[in-house]
Amino acid sequence: MIRINLLPQKRVRAGAPEASQKWLIAVLVIVLLEVVGLFLFHEWKNDELVQQNQKNNELQAKISEIKALVANHEEVKKSLAVLRQREDAIAKLQAARSGPTAILLELSRILTQGRGPTVEPDRLAALKKDNPLAVYSPAWDTRRVWLTSYSESERTVRLEGFARDGNDVSELAQRLRLSVYFLDVTILPGKKEPDKDTKLELIKFALQMKVRY
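^ thats the sequence. predicted structure below, dont judge the formating
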């Protein structure tokens, strides 16, 4: 007897196992790439953290140094204040000692025959070029003037003396104006007086000026 099976039969596809294997490999590759990527990202962030911690440590060390430096800030301020007071006192003493001395030496130069005031050469040359009458006369006989009084208060000086005539007073005032040691030179009202010994008529004068030293 011949039997015929009329029921549908299942067909087995030969390529199905290979496709499953490829899909599984692809998934594994993706997972592996993700793991590698996460590892690299973690290492990168870890390096950033290490660098940031290093910077923080350096800043903290600097802050500690600054705190140590300013820990005795008030004591340092007091010490500096004392030193400044000493320096000011020394400077005032030196100015009081050297200032009037320098002024008297300058007066000596001005009243010495053949010499003149201390003046900047460029300024003197410019004055000679613009107005020759604005400079001093090297040929002036300084013996025609003599001082009898010198007083100073708060860097304001008053000179008193005698001169043969008004031109001598003007020459002296001009030399003082040119000097780097004097400013605001003013000729005060004077008067004529006869000399007791020679009976010559002299000019009793007074000058007022500021001094710089």
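The first strand starts at residue 145 and ends at 153.
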